[in-house]
Design brief:
Layout lengths: L1 E4 L1 H23 L2 H4 L3 H21 L11 H29 L8 H25 E4 L5
Antiparallel strand pairs: 1-2
Length: 141
């Protein structure tokens, strides 16, 4: 069975990623993180999920294979990649605080809850990616 990812699935993934970038830029530019306490906890899983989904669709077939046979493995690998991105994001926030005015890191509770919601977003993106891989049983000749 040949596996493929539809153009529609790719368009959805890239659109979600663009929205995440715009929302993050708006969050910093308009101080939405300070204005709305929930903004950070909604944007973290969304952003990590969007990044993870886009990566899953880029990596699938190049590096990762076997989604229908090993769906749980694909979900967990993509979630691990997404969580790794979330951890690097937290390191970047810490580094940002060293050089820029403000307080991107609001303490260990904020960092841990960010990583928890990042994990949720990465797991959901991994699960969604595993269903976006479409099996094509027609034989090419």
């Amino acid at each position: 069975m040949e596996l493929r990812i539809t153009a529609g699935a790719r368009a959805i993934a890239w659109s979600l990623l663009v929205i995440a970038v715009v929302a993050n830029i708006a969050g910093y530019a308009f101080d939405l993180y300070a204005r709305w306490g929930w903004f950070d906890k909604v944007l973290h899983p969304y952003t990590i999920g969007a990044i993870t989904l886009a990566l899953a669709l880029v990596l699938y077939g190049r590096v990762l294979t076997g989604a229908p046979e090993r769906r749980l493995l694909l979900i967990l690998v993509m979630a691990a990649i997404g969580l790794s991105i979330g951890a690097l994001w937290e390191v970047a926030e810490w580094g940002f605080d060293l050089f820029a005015p403000g307080n991107a890191i609001k303490g260990k509770d904020d960092t841990i809850t960010d990583l928890i919601v990042d994990t949720l977003g990465a797991l959901l993106a991994g699960a969604w990616a595993s269903f976006l891989v479409v099996g094509n049983t027609s034989r090419q000749g």
